[in-house]
Design brief:
Layout (H helix, E strand, L loop, with lengths): L2 H29 L3 H29 L9 H32 L1
Subcellular location: Cytoplasm
Main location: cytoplasm
Protein name: PTS system N,N'-diacetylchitobiose-specific EIIA component
Length: about 100
């Protein structure tokens, strides 16, 4: 794996982890009734996820569907981090919405 590819993979892992952490922090804030703080943390999660997705898109564009980029275990790991962080964000957003509805009653 080249240093550039290794850096790209690590950037996906780091940004995805940050996105997931921010999403769970948002959920903690929502559980405490701090919906403004929850939305702020979700915005941070989305920004971090965009960073990871941007790098992923660059890797896909460079590969051009031709298998130019070698698939390594760490790259699979990075993809797993990205997908789980995206799922976490979606689920946390739904849970925040549910917390708001419960608090309104």
């Amino acid at each position: 794996m080249t240093m550039d590819l290794e850096s790209a993979v690590m950037e996906i892992i780091i940004n995805s982890g940050q996105a997931r952490s921010c999403a769970y922090e948002a959920l903690s804030k929502a559980k405490a009734g701090d919906y403004e703080g929850a939305e702020e943390m979700m915005a941070h999660a989305q920004e971090a996820a965009k960073g990871a997705h941007r790098v992923q898109t660059q890797l896909i564009e460079e590969d051009q569907g031709e298998g130019k980029t070698s698939m390594t275990l760490v790259m699979v790991h990075a993809q797993d981090h990205l997908m789980t962080s995206m799922l976490a964000q979606e689920m946390v957003q739904e849970l925040i919405t549910l917390h708001k509805k419960v608090d309104q009653k």
